[in-house]
Amino acid sequence: MKTRKFKAIDFKAAHEAIQWTEASGKGHAVLLDGLILVLEQADIDRLAADGVELAYLCDHELPDGTHRIVSVPVND
Q1: Residues 29 and 57: beta-carbon distance below 8 Å
Q2: Which of 26, 29, 47, 49 could cross-link with 57 by S-S, CB 3.0 to 4.6 Å?
């Protein structure tokens, strides 16, 4: 098993992580090993290149105006 180091902010809910990224303009909300995190793109790219499974978390507005959080898998 390879050890990877990265800086992350941990959140309890996906919508909180997404709101934080939108408000700060920094990082991306991701789901990694069951954790909801905000990571910088460079760390995400490095993890993806190493074959680590993760998913971007995105707020998607539906045609009726409601919002749904969707995940976009990487290395799934």
Answers
A1: yes
A2: 29
